[in-house]
Design brief:
Layout (H helix, E strand, L loop, with lengths): L3 E6 L13 E6 L3 E2 L4 H13 L4 E5 L5 E2 L1 H16 L3 E5 L3 H9 L7 E3 L2 H6 L6
Parallel strand pairs: 2-4, 3-5, 4-6, 6-7
Antiparallel strand pairs: 1-2
């Protein structure tokens, strides 16, 4: 699976203790998110959340196909992060993928932004 993880620092990080409110974890998904790779994706995202991550930005720039297992991973990640007073957002979603999300009303559960800048700015309310 060709997935990329980045950390966006929103304020200085102390060497003594990790303050997860100062970090946004950016996950760039591969072209296809389906039954073949959604289990791996879930392990990665759950590990980040279980490790303390509170802010997760999912970049769908490369995604041309996502099935119900991939959508389920996104929903379960949102639930897990919200239990920890965090959240998940998405951006760079193609019109084809947006049409799938619209049918299942996913945008009512996970906020979708047009750009990465908007997505990152949205985390300013989480402390």
């Amino acid at each position: 699976m060709n997935m990329q993880f980045d950390v966006i620092k929103v304020s200085p990080v102390s060497a003594d203790k990790i303050d997860y409110t100062t970090l946004i974890f950016k996950v760039t998904l591969p072209q296809k998110v389906d039954i073949d790779n959604s289990k791996d994706l879930w392990v990665y995202l759950k590990t980040l959340a279980s490790g303390g991550a509170q802010k997760m930005f999912i970049d769908l720039r490369q995604v041309t196909y996502i099935d119900s297992s991939g959508i389920g991973v996104l929903i379960n990640t949102a639930k897990l992060l919200r239990k920890q007073k965090g959240d998940i957002v998405m951006a760079n979603v193609s019109d084809d993928i947006k049409s799938i999300f619209k049918v299942i009303r996913l945008e009512e559960f996970i906020t979708i932004f047009n750009t990465e800048v908007e997505a990152v700015k949205s985390f300013s309310y989480i402390r």
